[in-house]
From TrEMBL:
Residues 43-127, 175-285 form the Cytochrome c domain. PANTHER family: CYTOCHROME C-553-LIKE. This is C-type cytochrome. It comes from Pseudomonas veronii. One of its GO terms (molecular function) is metal ion binding. The keyword Secreted does not apply. Pfam families: Cytochrom_C (PF00034). InterPro entries: Cyt_c-like_dom (IPR009056), Cyt_c-like_dom_sf (IPR036909), Cytochrome_c550/c551-like (IPR051811). Keywords: Electron transport, Heme, Iron, Metal-binding, Transport. It comes from the Bacteria.
Length: 285
């Protein structure tokens, strides 16, 4: 191209790029109210934002991947933990984590009930912002360096002295245990492995699921059990769909007769997905 053609090409390309950029900017602003869930910004949400800043939560935590990295990203924390758990945790974090074992402990900020409710309302609003999948990982509370935390079901059964499912033909497309394991690790709201370990003795926000089938049998046989399950699969299904039917011992798992585990799985998962999770979890002898 000669100089005139080069100049024309540059001007036309710049003009096209500018028009595209302006169009995308206008479209983004058009979608902001819906994407940011702006219609749900209540006075309590605004108050919660003030609490967040007043106590400098961002010095340790992040929202949308922005902030400090000493403590977990809290973008989806209300979907991962639920209001009952967060309320109890904010009142006394020391009941949930041991400083020596976990190497860090959130300080007790001495928040009053109004501040806690407002802060949770703010974080719940944040969790419902359409952030296009960012941050691209499940929330991590105690880290992933705990030995045995990432055992597969086959490895877990081997560790327990049982014949692993891998000893029989397994199809990732058809085997319900394999499909259940995939759901356990990847279901977005929330990710089961964010709260539950499958390693013996490793309790996170929820109790370890190692040996779940054996424990289920003991619970069902106990006179203190008031649920409706008659077998291991029924107990696991009940625990997923109506988690407060049986409360696992320990103050860090329930309060006021209500489990901290979210009770939304009956709606967020299909019956087929629940069947697959049950098959996976029932294999933990």
């Amino acid at each position: 191209m000669n100089k005139r053609q080069t100049r024309s090409f540059a001007l036309i390309s710049t003009a096209i790029a500018a028009v595209v950029f302006l169009g995308m900017t206008v479209d983004s602003h058009r979608q902001f109210p819906k994407l940011t869930n702006a219609q749900q910004i209540t006075p309590e949400v605004t108050r919660g934002k003030d609490v967040w800043h007043e106590y400098n939560c961002i010095n340790c935590h992040t929202l949308f991947g922005e902030g400090a990295y000493y403590a977990p990203d809290l973008t989806k924390i209300t979907q991962q933990r639920g209001t009952p758990y967060l309320t109890a945790f904010l009142k006394d974090p020391s009941k949930f984590y041991d400083e020596q074992r976990h190497r860090r402990l959130m300080p007790n900020l001495k928040l009053n009930d109004e501040e806690i409710a407002a802060l949770i309302a703010f974080m719940d609003w944040v969790s419902k912002v359409d952030n296009q999948g960012w941050p691209p990982r499940p929330i991590l509370v105690t880290g992933t360096s705990i030995p045995g935390m990432d055992l597969t079901v086959a490895q877990q059964n081997v560790a327990g002295g049982n014949q692993p499912p891998a000893a029989r033909p397994v199809s990732g497309k058809e085997d319900p245990i394999a499909l259940g394991e995939a759901l356990f690790r990847t279901t977005a709201t929330p990710v089961c492995s964010a709260c539950h370990s499958i390693a013996p003795g490793v309790n996170l926000a929820g109790p370890t699921l190692a040996g779940l089938a054996a424990r289920a049998k003991q619970v069902i046989a106990s006179p203190d059990y008031k649920g409706k399950a008659k077998d291991v699969e029924g107990f696991i299904r009940e625990s997923i769909v109506t988690p407060s039917a049986y409360l696992h011992p320990g103050d860090m798992y329930s309060a006021n007769g209500m489990s901290f585990m979210p009770d939304t799985f009956a709606k967020s998962l299909t019956p087929e997905q629940i069947d697959q999770l049950v098959a996976y979890l029932a294999s933990f002898q």
